[in-house]
């Protein structure tokens, strides 16, 4: 049939597949027909054999393709393809069809093309027309979906040119459209693009057709070179040597192997076989290759209608015969091989349906309708299980009679109903055309899902939901694709063409689907109602006809009404698991308790006693005790070393108590937490004002577990955080520490109230509320279901979500958990931006945080089960599981938890007895339990100090834990093992109780001298050999010590599993392993240990060690196979057999050398040897399998028994070799605790849980991750995408936030506010990280750095430098003022000489200014700092901010909100832009400035009335006096410091009214306005964008003088004298942070005696003080000192100085009218201005009793000028020597202002111009009218050329140089001739252009005294358009 059929599909997809299925069953000799729906939905992706067997024509096609690819592998040439000759007379032109019609897209894009329904237009590529696409119409069923899957094989297409239809072969079609191919035509190669209509209606090239199947099939075939069929494993290549003690399931003994367990129903759960490590001739197995290739596709939906044909395989597959099963069935059987080492398909090996979705009590019958159905009596007794009835569709009948023996659940009904509703995510595709999946289809899919389940698997609701999801998406894939790809107009909305399954077809189709499962699923069809079907089902049950049946599907379908259905779970195992899963955790506890109290378990005990042929175990124990009393203890303990004593006995040196230290990870997480806190504080919402907090306080809330509580106290105590935060003083007591940890129990509320009161009373303390183990109690306080029994239920909600916590602005809540899923719902309080996830250690292969420990968590444990790892850390115990299952059938009324616990206690008891010499008891335990027990008992004897292993036995149910404790305690006592190991009952509500003997041991090991000490945490049990029975429904954050070796979780509640429950149970085993040891493969290579004892010991922990015994052997390949089975029963045996084989066949073990080098070399050699020859190792060392099995008993008895006569503390494989071993081992025995701490613990799981954990979905994500995340949440929709392994923690969080909603019992249930984001609490954070990874340490470190940051926020680095050039200052005893004078006396001050010397430390590298003939030492005043060190190396001191500090934009506090411009609605204040123009003759043009004035500041200005034009800035009067007003306007020039500039003067001014103007450059206006919306801005003209600070100062001063004139004119009209207008302005740097005043006390006996103190004062106080100076208007400049911690009394003895002032000055713009700042200057402009002011005869006064602190700001300011090349953008460092060049040279021009280049050049290289001046301080350089910094090694003498100016007397001075900088007309030849120069002195003339240079030389008659040369002319390295400055140098004649 094949392609001929496929090409002419006129029917629906369903009929096609049905037809193919019938055909397949007819062709097969197997009586069971192929299930149809596997082809339709469930197997299209995994069972690629169905793709291969699609049709004959395609078979040929693919054979060609695959052989072609094989040929290419072997370098053989491809076979040329012979095309049929075209019919005579037809067109053969490229781009046209044979009928001569044009098919090229460019030609027919605008033509109307008729496309039949179900067809798509695609573009074909012709090899002869590479630039064209040919248009074709192709049936979309033969095209792939977006993921490259699910195209039907074959072809069906039409020619759009001539209209010919019905091409069934692509070969025929390619001939018709003249592709002219030289190779086999394939649609995959030539159909390249979808074609779509654009907005104009033209046909255009759309998306690429995603062909992946073809390449995949080709690649698939070439990967396997074995001679079997593609998916069949040859028998010879089975997992050699492995044996399985697991019997074949007896459920379907007569079923053929291929059909007993059909293939995986759910394509997103690959079989474990995918990870088989079997290697075929050096290549991976085909199955493994298939899985690898298919992993990426498994999340994708399978196509509806994949054709399957199980005809003969391709010719290359030799093994097929008409009698063999079809290839698809072969695939089924290979997924679940029934051979030894059988790997069950994990398709449904899932936990039960979670009880969480139940509505109402599970056991009550649902409300029914119609006739009642009577439940037969004795149903439970007969069936051995309570059937579970899941309501399906329609009406459900009443049940009456013995209703206690059935359980009815609405869970499936809910699932069906949910699947009927379309998700919002798909509404975009148009809900009108996409119908939900039909009821009939739902039921059919359910039937097929049940058919796929193996006998030991349980259905899971999540799987069904995913199947429905896929089916629905597939049935509407084409519509969805159309909507995705095209504009709506291009594709009219056509309803789907799928014909639904009718209700009449349904029973027949269901029966057909179920026919392949050998009665596992039984279909009952009813005519009238479900009642008759249920009655029949009960009848069949009673008659025993459903023994093999696990599921009964009852369908009542008729044509005229909807279907009724229900599904009954009749399988004993499935029914038990499902019914138990419906119990809530508290119901589960009650049920178990009831069974214990009522004595129902006694039948179990009596049954156990019948198992032992020697009689009851108790009798045996008693007998053993009587016989060996006083004898066994001495033999067992004969060689046991005592603990350390004073006589020098050998002591174990490996015991170390870990010191508290912060790991890199924890620090990184703490810093992430801190940055989140800062981002909350920095956001504009003002939710956290960090600046207002002075210190940190905290409270840690922990679950009510005494151990967790004590553990947290322990961490807190040892972290030192309380002392660091200053919360406690030295001599900390435990009672004080307890104040900071809150146990969430009945007394929690009292302590919490105290915390709340503290937070209210201390608004300046930030309280951090840490909720540790935050997933623990999420019950709503409103919906607390069990208030009587559980006092703490809902407590978290009551406390942490109370109104006080939510509203307190000083409480930050931090939730810390390993399982955050329940806090990530649609209603969560925590913003996704406030989640902090533990970082991964690797990113792109780079180790981000180098740690000396490797963490082993869930993913590492799972990884250890994959192929390639030496031994799995996760295991299950098959013999234990088999016994539990058998007992479950025998005792149907007992809860499985009871049965499991009693069986396990029995196993432990028997194992202890076996180890103690009752060797017959080893038959009554499992290998696993025996291994655990033996290692536990032997462990303490392998260490000189008696250190041992810990075994954790997890028993969630507290009453069962108590029973186990009593029983094991009793057995231990009877066996006289009381001093060998301890048994501890770990109850969450109580502390740890251990025997006195063991307490003394712990005290010795831990060097504790306290008599009353008792261990209070499990961590303190380090090294204690013990069984810890860990009870409690959930672990509550308890950490376990490093000596943990086995984590026995076989008793965890495996019926009711959600992700959190599962992961927190496995979290107990999470572990840190030292990373110096190689742990890449999840085991430790203990190569360097000299430990031949491993050879003979049955100590199974040594399987973990990669090197067994002698260095010539590596771990046997047997262990490599372990990873496939992981069934510990078989594997332990085989590994023991291999160990024994090594011992018996090889010579006695050699003693390992102690030389590390040699050992390492041995290891390397051995590694190479083993890697090369694994096969030889097998043949050489392993006995045949049968032999191995026969040897089992002997090995066990030889290895296990430790008889009383044996003097060795170790077991040996044979008595002959024992002495050798013993004598050696006693010297080299090693502490087993040390070994345990170097490798992760081994975890034993229930089989059901093991299957869930180790099975992964298509992306590699563990199955457990896709379970419901938590009991109290539910899925928002069945229609949700699958999670992916590639998801980061953040993406997982977003997934849960979208797809989960809390149930009403969840505390977040009421936290919803439709469509708004304010449901998130702004001060709530979530820290999540794997269990036991160190989250406690991380959040304690966070508290530490948060505290430090708060202190740091209240501190600043201020410059702290001594004044410079103090030694040059005149040392005169004359003081002009008294130390206590508050203001200068004007007349006295006028007499004070001006101090020319610069004392400001920032000018340390500036030229010295000579004032007269000074005796300056010619010391080396060379630069003490390099250029780049100028800002980084200046000395600073950290100072705490006072309440009068100036702040940057990061400061938020309530007082200055309004000042800053943030009103309560967080909108920026409005402001207006005003132009302000004035003319200035020196610039020769009008200057236009712009003011940005906020509305709130307009009162400071005068506007013209009609047009609101800015007229002037208001100025007060000199006579005005006000306490709350600052008269002087403050101007702050700034650049590059919009965030960091200290412009918030609110606190500095102490709230006083003041006028503050920021002076900014035009290009920075917007950013400054954004950060400082309520500040007045003065925007400089754009021509000053690249100017320096001189331009800003110049414009501030000129504007202020112009404004003074305007105000004088305006106020003169009001009758005010011009001289009464206040003439001062303040010019302040943007880094002035605090101001101080020195208070002098002159109350001493003598006048000269005084004391002084310095205190921080407000700027308001200082300014008002200065403004009140008598005769203040006579001073031109007033300033203050710069603060220094080294200020001495001499500096402040004279309260006022006449000297340079810097940084913060008051400028009298009236007096300085004719003195200007130099607008070109970048540096030293204040020194230059000071000199000009003084030379003009004006007074400069510095108040020495005031000082300003300047903050070190690392950005902006002068640093914002970068000198770089104008040619290239690449940053190349340019030295200052390159800043000038010869005119007209080809020097690289620089992109920097000419003035800046000049100043920088002179600063660093002025000695080139003035060689005589270098260090010649007595002969300075004469600088006329300007001060330029020539560097610290050259002194300058400033003179002014202005008439009547004050200059120094130069009569005695001879100058070494002359500097003429841009000299104006005041400089004349006669002026220069007054000065005397040394012979050879140099001259430098600087002008704007070369012409001015020449004119200056002539005008000043310079050539009379100075000699010039042409080569002495220079310019700054600027391009012509940048207006360079020109220099001319000359020598004095």
Describe what this molecule looks like in 3D.
This protein is α/β, with parallel strands linked by helices. 31% of the residues lie in helices and 16% in strands. The protein is built from 60 helices and 58 strands. Strands 36, 37, 40, 41, 42, 43, 44, 45, 46, 47, 48 and 49 form a 12-stranded mixed β-sheet that branches. The chain has an 8-stranded mixed β-sheet with strand order 34-54-53-55-56-58-57-51. Strands 16-15-17-18-32-19 form a 6-stranded parallel β-sheet, sandwiched between helices. Helix 33 crosses helix 34 (896-915), helix 34 packs parallel to helix 36 (958-974) and helix 40 packs antiparallel against helix 41. The longest helix has 24 residues, at 1589-1612. The radius of gyration is 46 Å and the shape is globular. The N and C termini lie far apart (116 Å).
Uncertain segments are 1-12, 29-78, 213-368, 486-498, 632-649, 785-789, 1077-1228, 1418-1431
- End-to-end distance, in Å? 116 Å
The profile of the biggest β sheet is: 12 strands, mixed
Which value, in Å, is the CA radius of gyration?
Answer: 46 Å
Portion of residues in helices? 25-40%
Strand element count: 58
Beta-strand share of residues: 15-25%
Shape: globular
Give the helix/strand class.
Answer: alpha/beta
Indicate the mean pLDDT.
Answer: 77
Number of helices: 60
How would you concisely characterize the structure shown here?
This protein has 1933 residues and is an alpha/beta fold. It is 31% helix and 16% strand. The longest helix has 24 residues, at 1589-1612.
């Amino acid at each position: 049939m094949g392609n001929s059929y496929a090409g002419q599909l006129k029917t629906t997809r369903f009929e096609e597949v049905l037809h193919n299925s019938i055909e397949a069953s007819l062709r097969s000799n197997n009586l069971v027909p192929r299930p149809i729906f596997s082809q339709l939905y469930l197997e299209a992706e995994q069972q690629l054999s169905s793709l291969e067997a699609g049709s004959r024509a395609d078979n040929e096609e693919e054979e060609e393709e695959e052989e072609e690819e094989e040929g290419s592998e072997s370098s053989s040439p491809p076979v040329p393809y012979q095309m049929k000759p075209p019919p005579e007379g037809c067109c053969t032109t490229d781009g046209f069809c044979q009928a001569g019609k044009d098919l090229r897209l460019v030609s027919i894009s605008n033509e109307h093309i008729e496309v039949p329904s179900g067809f798509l237009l695609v573009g074909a590529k012709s090899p002869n027309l590479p630039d064209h696409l040919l248009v074709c119409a192709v049936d979309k069923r033969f095209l792939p979906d977006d993921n490259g899957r699910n195209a039907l094989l074959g072809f069906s297409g039409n020619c759009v040119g001539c209209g010919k239809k019905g091409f069934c072969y692509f070969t025929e079609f390619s001939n018709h459209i003249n592709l002219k191919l030289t190779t086999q035509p394939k649609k995959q190669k030539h159909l390249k693009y979808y074609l779509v209509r654009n907005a104009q209606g033209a046909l255009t090239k759309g998306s690429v057709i995603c062909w992946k199947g073809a390449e995949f099939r080709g690649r698939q075939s070439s990967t396997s070179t074995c001679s079997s069929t593609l998916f069949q494993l040859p028998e010879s290549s089975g997992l050699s040597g492995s044996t399985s003690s697991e019997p074949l399931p007896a459920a379907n003994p007569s079923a053929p192997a291929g059909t007993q367990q059909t293939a995986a129903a759910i394509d997103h759960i690959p079989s474990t076989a995918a990870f088989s490590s079997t290697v075929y001739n050096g290549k991976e197995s085909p199955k493994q290759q298939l899985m690898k290739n298919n992993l990426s596709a498994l999340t994708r939906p399978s196509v509806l209608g994949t054709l399957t044909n199980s005809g003969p395989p391709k010719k290359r597959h030799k093994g097929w015969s008409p009698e063999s099963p079809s290839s698809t069935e072969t695939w089924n059987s290979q997924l679940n091989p029934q051979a030894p080492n059988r790997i069950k398909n994990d398709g449904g090996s899932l936990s039960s349906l979670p009880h969480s979705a139940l509505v109402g009590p599970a056991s009550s019958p649902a409300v029914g309708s119609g006739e009642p159905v009577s439940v037969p009596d004795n149903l439970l007794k007969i069936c051995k299980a309570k059937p579970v009835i899941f309501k399906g569709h329609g009406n459900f009948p009443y049940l009456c009679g013995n209703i206690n023996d059935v359980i009815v659940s609405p869970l499936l009904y809910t699932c069906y109903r949910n699947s009927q509703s379309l998700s919002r995510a798909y509404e975009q595709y148009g809900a009108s055309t996409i119908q939900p999946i039909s009821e009939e289809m739902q039921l059919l899919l359910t039937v097929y899902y049940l058919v796929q389940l193996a006998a030991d698997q349980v259905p899971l609701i999540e799987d069904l939901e995913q199947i429905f999801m896929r089916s629905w998406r597939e049935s509407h894939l084409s519509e969805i694709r159309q909507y995705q790809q095209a504009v709506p107009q291009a594709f009219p909305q056509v309803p789907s063409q799928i014909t639904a399954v009718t209700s009449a077809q349904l029973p027949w189709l269901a029966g057909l689907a179920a026919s392949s499962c050998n009665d596992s699923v039984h279909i009952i069809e009813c005519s009238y109602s479900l009642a008759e079907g249920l009655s029949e089902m009960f009848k069949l049950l009673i008659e025993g006809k459903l023994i093999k049946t696990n599921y009964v599907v009852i369908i009542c379908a008729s044509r005229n009404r909807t279907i009724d259905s229900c599904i009954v779970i009749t399988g004993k195992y499935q029914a038990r698991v499902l019914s138990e899963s419906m119990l809530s955790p508290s119901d589960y506890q009650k049920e178990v308790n009831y069974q214990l109290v009522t004595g129902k378990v006694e039948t179990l005990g009596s049954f156990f006693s019948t198992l032992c042929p020697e009689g009851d175990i108790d009798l045996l124990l008693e007998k053993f005790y009587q016989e060996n009393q006083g004898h066994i203890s001495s033999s067992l303990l004969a060689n046991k070393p005592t603990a350390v004593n004073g006589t020098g006995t050998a002591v174990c040196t490996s015991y170390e108590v870990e010191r508290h230290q912060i790991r890199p990870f924890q620090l990184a997480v703490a810093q992430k937490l801190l940055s989140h806190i800062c981002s909350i504080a920095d956001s504009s919402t003002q939710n956290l004002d960090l600046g207002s907090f002075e210190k940190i306080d905290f409270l840690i809330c922990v679950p009510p577990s005494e151990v967790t509580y004590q553990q947290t106290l322990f961490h807190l105590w040892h972290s030192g955080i309380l002392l660091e935060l200053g919360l406690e003083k030295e001599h900390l007591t435990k009672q004080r520490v307890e104040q900071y940890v809150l146990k969430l129990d009945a007394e929690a509320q009292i302590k919490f109230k105290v915390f709340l009161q503290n937070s209210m009373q201390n608004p300046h303390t930030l309280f951090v509320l840490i909720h540790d183990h935050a997933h623990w109690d999420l019950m709503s306080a409103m919906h607390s279901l069990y208030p009587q029994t559980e006092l703490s239920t809902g407590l978290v909600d009551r406390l942490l979500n109370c109104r006080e916590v939510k509203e307190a602005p000083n409480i930050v809540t931090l939730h810390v958990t390993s399982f955050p899923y329940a806090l990530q719902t649609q209603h969560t309080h925590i913003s996704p931006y406030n989640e902090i996830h533990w970082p991964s250690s690797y990113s792109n292969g780079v180790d981000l945080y180098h740690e000396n420990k490797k963490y082993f968590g869930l993913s590492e444990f799972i990884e250890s089960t994959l192929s390639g790892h030496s031994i799995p850390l996760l295991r299950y115990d098959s013999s234990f599981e088999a016994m539990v299952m058998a007992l479950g059938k025998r005792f149907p009324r007992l809860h499985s938890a009871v049965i499991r616990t009693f069986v396990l206690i029995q196993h432990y008891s028997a194992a202890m007895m076996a180890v103690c010499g009752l060797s017959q008891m080893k038959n009554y335990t499992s290998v696993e339990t025996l291994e655990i027990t033996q290692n536990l008992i032997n462990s303490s004897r392998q260490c000189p100090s008696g250190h041992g292993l810990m075994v954790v036995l997890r028993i969630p149910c507290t009453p069962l834990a108590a029973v186990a404790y009593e029983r094991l305690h009793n057995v231990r006592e009877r066996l006289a093992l009381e001093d060998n190991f301890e048994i501890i009952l770990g109850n969450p509500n109580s502390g740890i109780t251990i025997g006195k003997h063991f307490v003394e041991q712990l005290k010795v090991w831990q060097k504790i001298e306290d008599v009353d000490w008792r261990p209070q945490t499990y961590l303190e049990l380090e090294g204690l050999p013990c069984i810890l029975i860990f009870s409690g429904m959930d672990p509550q954050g308890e950490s376990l010590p490093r000596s943990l070796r086995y984590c026995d979780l076989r008793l965890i509640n495996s019926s009711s599993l959600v992700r959190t429950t599962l992961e927190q149970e496995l979290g107990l085993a999470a572990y840190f392993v030292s990373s110096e040891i190689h742990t890449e493969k999840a085991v430790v290579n203990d190569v360097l240990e000299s430990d031949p004892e491993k050879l003979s010991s049955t100590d199974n922990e040594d399987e973990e060690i990669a090197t067994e015994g002698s260095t010539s052997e590596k771990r046997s390949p047997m262990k490599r196979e372990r990873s496939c089975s992981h069934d510990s029963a078989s594997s332990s045996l085989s590994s023991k057999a291999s160990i024994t084989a090594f011992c018996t066949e090889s010579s006695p073990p050699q003693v390992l050398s102690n030389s590390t080098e040699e050992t390492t070399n041995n290891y390397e050699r051995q590694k190479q040897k083993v890697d090369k020859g694994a096969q030889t190792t097998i043949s050489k060392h392993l006995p045949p399998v049968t032999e191995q099995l026969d040897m089992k008993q002997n090995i066990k008895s030889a290895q296990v028994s430790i008889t009383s006569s044996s003097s060795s503390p170790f077991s040996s494989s044979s008595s002959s070799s024992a002495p050798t071993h013993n004598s050696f081992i006693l010297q080299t025995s090693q502490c087993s605790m040390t070994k345990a701490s170097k490798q992760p613990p081994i975890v034993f799981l229930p089989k059901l849980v093991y299957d869930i954990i180790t099975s992964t979905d298509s992306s590699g994500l563990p199955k457990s991750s896709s379970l419901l995340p938590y009991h109290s949440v539910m899925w928002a929709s069945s229609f949700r995408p699958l999670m992916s392994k590639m998801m980061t923690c953040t993406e997982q969080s977003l997934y849960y936030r979208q797809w989960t909603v809390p149930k009403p019992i969840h505390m977040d249930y009421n936290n919803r506010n439709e469509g708004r984001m304010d449901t998130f609490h702004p001060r709530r954070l979530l820290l999540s990280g794997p269990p036991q990874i160190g989250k406690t340490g991380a959040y304690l470190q966070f508290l530490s750095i948060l505290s430090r940051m708060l202190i740091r926020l209240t501190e600043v680095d201020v410059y702290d430098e001594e004044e410079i050039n103090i030694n040059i200052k005149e040392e005169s005893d004359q003081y002009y003022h008294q130390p206590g004078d508050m203001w200068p006396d004007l007349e006295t001050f006028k007499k004070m000489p001006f101090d020319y010397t610069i004392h400001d430390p920032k000018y340390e590298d500036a030229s010295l200014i000579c004032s007269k003939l000074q005796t300056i030492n010619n010391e080396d005043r060379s630069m003490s700092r390099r250029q780049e060190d100028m800002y980084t190396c200046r000395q600073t001191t950290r100072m705490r901010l006072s309440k009068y500090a100036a702040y940057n934009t990061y400061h938020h506090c309530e007082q200055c909100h309004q000042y800053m411009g943030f009103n309560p609605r967080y909108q920026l204040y409005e402001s207006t832009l005003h132009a302000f123009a004035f003319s200035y003759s020196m610039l020769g043009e009008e200057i236009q400035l712009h003011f940005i004035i906020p509305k709130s500041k307009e009162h400071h200005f005068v506007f013209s009335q009609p047009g609101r034009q800015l007229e002037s800035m208001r100025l007060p009067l000199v006579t005005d006096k006000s306490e709350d007003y600052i008269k002087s306007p403050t101007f702050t020039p700034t650049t590059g410091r919009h965030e960091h500039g200290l412009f918030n003067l609110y606190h500095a001014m102490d709230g006083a009214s003041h006028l503050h103007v920021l002076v900014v450059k035009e290009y920075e206006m917007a950013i400054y306005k954004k950060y400082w919306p309520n500040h007045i801005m003065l925007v400089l003209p754009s021509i000053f964008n690249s100017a320096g600070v001189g331009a800003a100062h110049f414009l501030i001063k000129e504007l202020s003088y112009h404004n003074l004139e305007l105000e004088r004119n305006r106020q003169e009209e009001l009758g005010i004298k011009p001289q009464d207008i206040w003439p001062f302005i303040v010019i302040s740097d943007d880094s002035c942070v605090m101001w101080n005043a020195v208070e002098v006390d002159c109350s001493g006996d003598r006048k000269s005696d005084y004391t002084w103190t310095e205190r921080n004062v407000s700027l308001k106080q200082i300014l008002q003080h200065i403004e009140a100076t008598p005769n203040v208007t006579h001073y031109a400049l007033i300033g203050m000192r710069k603060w220094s911690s080294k200020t001495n009394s001499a500096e402040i003895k004279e309260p006022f100085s006449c000297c340079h002032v810097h940084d913060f000055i008051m400028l009298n713009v009236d007096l300085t009218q004719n003195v200007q700042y130099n607008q070109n200057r970048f540096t030293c402009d204040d020194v230059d201005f000071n000199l000009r002011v003084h030379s003009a005869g004006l007074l400069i006064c510095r108040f020495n009793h005031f000082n300003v602190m300047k903050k070190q700001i690392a950005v902006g300011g002068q640093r914002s000028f970068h000198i770089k090349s104008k040619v290239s953008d690449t940053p190349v460092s340019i030295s200052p020597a390159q800043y000038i060049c010869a005119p007209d040279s080809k020097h690289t021009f620089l992109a920097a202002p000419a003035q800046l280049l000049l100043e920088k050049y002179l600063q660093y290289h002025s000695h080139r111009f003035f060689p005589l001046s270098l260090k010649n301080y007595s002969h300075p350089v004469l600088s006329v009218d300007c001060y330029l910094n020539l560097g610290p090694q050259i002194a300058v003498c400033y003179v002014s050329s202005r008439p009547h100016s004050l200059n120094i007397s130069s009569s005695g001075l001879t100058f070494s140089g002359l500097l003429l900088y841009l000299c104006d007309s005041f400089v004349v030849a006669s002026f220069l001739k007054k000065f005397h120069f040394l012979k050879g002195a140099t001259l430098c003339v600087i002008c704007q252009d070369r012409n001015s240079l020449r004119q200056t030389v002539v005008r000043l008659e310079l050539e009379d005294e100075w000699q010039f040369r042409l080569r002495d002319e220079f310019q700054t390295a600027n391009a012509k358009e940048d207006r360079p400055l020109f220099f001319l140098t000359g020598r004095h004649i």
